[in-house]
Amino acid sequence: MPKYTVPDFEAMQGKQKIVMLTAYDYAGAVMAEAAGVDLILVGDSLGMVVLGYESTVFVTMQDMIHHTRAVKRGARETFIVVDMPFGTVQTGLTDALRNAVHLIRETGADAVKIEGGEEVTPIVRHLSQSGIPVVAHVGLTPQTAVNLGGFKVQGKTVQDAQQIMRDAQAVADAGAFMVVLEAIPAPLAQKISERLKVPTIGIGAGPHTDGQVLVYHDLLGLFDRFTPKFVKQYAQMAKLGTEAIQNYVQDVKNGSFPGPEHSFTMKEEVLSRLY
Ligand code: KIV
Ligand code: NA
């Protein structure tokens, strides 16, 4: 299957759901591509699920570049979106463009993602007009979660819901080709999805968006710190992994690993001539 391009995602609306998954390394990207996800996000959730930070604000350009390169090597036929880390777009349009170009050039990613609504529309417009495909991200925006009361559902009041609708419309009007809606009520996400011409990708935004995204470690049960309500765990890999490692520890301790099937032999005549 040839790799998708930006217009393909718009064309999928109303015909088939768009499936996005995060990945952060070669092995994860290989699995995501083999499983048939439509696009991969190298999210700055990297900071939390892979690097163990308490927040995504500690993630750097170098972190994103390092990991996105690995993802690219594992998923050459899949459209890749890379998150612009905290602080890399807020210091002016020139910096934002320079950082976006740098990310794309260094990694081979196809698009960048920027958190924020109305306040980031000049950046979204500048990057889009410069030829960089931009994915927007509104609702719960983890880089500024401290201002939003933590990792909580957004848009519960008339005022907040109205603002999220304005945010989504504004970033789409500014040229974003896709909008991620995070942690908002399902009916609000539905309303936004009906209004926007570009596809919406939900996470904790109900079933009516044009697509869904999940964090790889959440889907596979690899992240132990917390599991948001909107996560469906398709496996308990942390549990499986710990059990497997326990078996390894036990086998080495009691001498049952490595067995003959894991060991190399040597000709007796060679061995006998050693002194
Ligand atoms: O960083 C990330 O994984 C994200 C998704 C949750 C949308 O931004
Ligand atoms: Na992110």
Automatic annotation (TrEMBL):
Pathway(s) it belongs to: Cofactor biosynthesis; (R)-pantothenate biosynthesis; (R)-pantoate from 3-methyl-2-oxobutanoate: step 1/2
Keywords linked to the UniProt accession: Cytoplasm, Magnesium, Metal-binding, Pantothenate biosynthesis, Transferase
Localization terms from the record: Cytoplasm
Cofactor binding note: Binds 1 Mg(2+) ion per subunit.
The keyword Glycoprotein is assigned to this record: no
Binding residue positions for 3-methyl-2-oxobutanoate: D44, S45, D83, K113
PANTHER family reported for this sequence: 3-METHYL-2-OXOBUTANOATE HYDROXYMETHYLTRANSFERASE
Name of the protein in question: 3-methyl-2-oxobutanoate hydroxymethyltransferase
Native organism: Deinococcus roseus
